[in-house]
Specification:
Chain lengths: 221, 265
């Protein structure tokens, strides 16, 4: 289980401190899939970072009793001057995994062939996305953090990702952020809306959706 | 209880070593790539530096206030400078480009520093040893009198460089001023660092003050090990160790602050 207790996150800005998360508490149980909606800048990615442990909250507590992935399909951990294979080797070493086995999987899954021996900086954004997703799949986690994954690759690759993530790993917990509301509706059982620092859970998708739409159009009427 | 604690520490140590090893390999590939001589640059570059300085000083018949051969003088002095100066230079600003690694929870700020320090210290050491052996084999240099003293002096300089590096590296995450100030400062302290003079050649009054510069004590130790009775070295080992310990404490405290405050993209 992952438990957030009274988590506050404050960032200093030029115009004073900005409260991004205000006293947030919730539990994510094993196998549970939670979708979070919110407008741009609402703090969704901050929330993901805190859950992943890459960043510590200003106040409050995050407890993890299961292993948590890095935000999926996030290519930032690549070293651009290294080849795709170098990046696979690096991740394999960090997580104490069998490198050869992982390289085979990445060849197979990404279908990038000899490009894997080229520096990542020469990749197109679609190729990067393929590599990033494949690398995310070589380490098994109890909980996956999914930050806007729908931008990944072409239709065929999208299908492969769906199978890998929601087919083979349907027993895992997931925290999903996406502006693709249909994607969130399809894959999650619990829904929450993040707005002005507050995280509110709704009993079903439709109510969450409605609240989200209201937030999007605040100030227009 | 005590046993299980030991097992936990053992496990943590093996995780940390694994992470540092992975970072080392990544760093070597990133910095030196697979072109021409690849990672040999790790020590060929400092060797070129030291050789260049040795040549310059020989041609300029540098006055260093002792009857030591200039080659020996330049080798010991400049190698020591590379050791303590390159470590901070590589650690300042080291966190920023590696921030995204913080998503891998086993990777900590200190690991990034340690990997770079091992690389930098290793490069300077291999360069120093290789050049020594080379100069000895062609007869420009007599074999050292006391290797253990050299090792002690060298390790103390490395400790000083490493703790300074971690301290400044962690601090540079907070303020860009660290990087801006380090460049001129490292240049200005070069003439004071003992690389280009023997303390014994200075006036008595100056000797007292110059030994307050930590690196000077280390360089004098290395030279005593190298030249034995040919030189009269001045140093204060307890002072140097105290400096390093204090700096190490400050460094670790600053790393804790950095751990708390970093925000990956």
């Amino acid at each position: 289980m992952i438990r957030l207790e009274n988590v506050h996150q404050v960032y200093p800005t030029r115009s004073g401190d900005r409260v991004v998360l205000n006293d947030i508490s919730f539990d994510l149980d094993r196998g549970e899939k939670v979708g979070i909606l919110g407008r741009n800048g609402a703090g969704k990615s901050t929330l993901i970072r805190l859950v992943s442990g890459a960043e510590r909250p200003t106040a409050g507590k995050v407890t993890r009793n299961m292993s948590v992935s890095w935000p999926l399909a996030f290519g930032g951990a690549f070293q651009n001057s290294l080849t795709g294979l170098d990046n696979v080797r690096f991740i394999s070493r960090i997580y104490n995994q069998r490198t050869e086995h992982n390289i085979d999987f990445v060849y197979d899954f990404t279908e990038l062939g000899s490009y894997l021996r080229e520096p990542v900086r020469n990749y197109s954004s679609g190729m990067r996305a393929r590599l990033a997703f494949a690398i995310s799949m070589i380490i098994e986690f109890d909980c996956y953090l999914i930050d806007e994954i729908t931008a990944v690759g072409d239709a065929k690759f999208y299908e492969k990702c769906e199978e890998e993530l929601f087919g083979k790993r349907k027993d895992r917990a997931m925290l999903i952020i996406s502006h693709d509301l249909e994607y969130v509706r399809l894959h999650c059982q619990r829904f929450a809306v993040l707005h002005e620092g507050d995280l509110v859970f709704y009993p079903n998708f439709d109510e969450a959706h409605e609240a989200h739409l209201r937030n999007l159009h605040i100030g227009e009427g | 209880m005590a046993h299980s604690k030991l097992t936990t520490i053992g496990h943590s140590a093996s995780v940390q070593w694994r992470v540092i090893h992975a970072l080392l390999m990544r760093e070597i590939l990133t910095r030196y790539g697979r072109h021409n001589i690849g990672f040999l640059w790790l020590f060929v570059e400092p060797m070129l530096f030291t050789t260049g300085v040795t040549l310059l000083w020989t041609l300029a018949r540098s006055v260093h206030g002792s009857n030591l051969p200039i080659v020996a003088f330049a080798l010991t002095g400049y190698s020591a400078v590379l050791l303590w100066r390159n470590m901070p230079s590589r650690c300042i600003g080291a966190i920023e480009p590696n921030l995204s690694l913080m998503y891998h929870r086993n990777v900590r700020v200190i690991d990034i520093f340690l990997a770079r320090l091992i690389l930098e210290g290793g490069g300077a050491t291999i360069s120093f040893v290789t050049l020594s052996l080379f100069y000895i084999s062609i007869g420009w240099l007599d074999p050292p009198e006391d290797i253990l003293t050299i090792v002690m002096g060298w390790l103390l300089i490395a400790w000083f460089g490493a703790s300074l590096a971690i301290f400044l590296g962690a601090l540079s995450e907070k303020s860009e001023l660290v990087e801006k100030i380090w460049h001129p400062l490292s240049y200005l302290t070069f003439p004071l660092s003992g690389a280009a003079f023997m303390v014994d050649a200075l006036p008595a009054e100056a000797q007292r003050y110059v030994l307050y510069v930590p690196m000077v004590n280390g360089v004098e130790l290395v030279r005593e090990g190298y030249f034995g009775a040919h030189v009269h070295a001045h140093y204060d080992i307890p002072f140097l160790i105290t400096c390093c310990s204090v700096l190490t404490l400050l460094a670790l405290a600053q790393v804790t602050v950095a751990n708390r405050e970093i925000t990956p993209e």
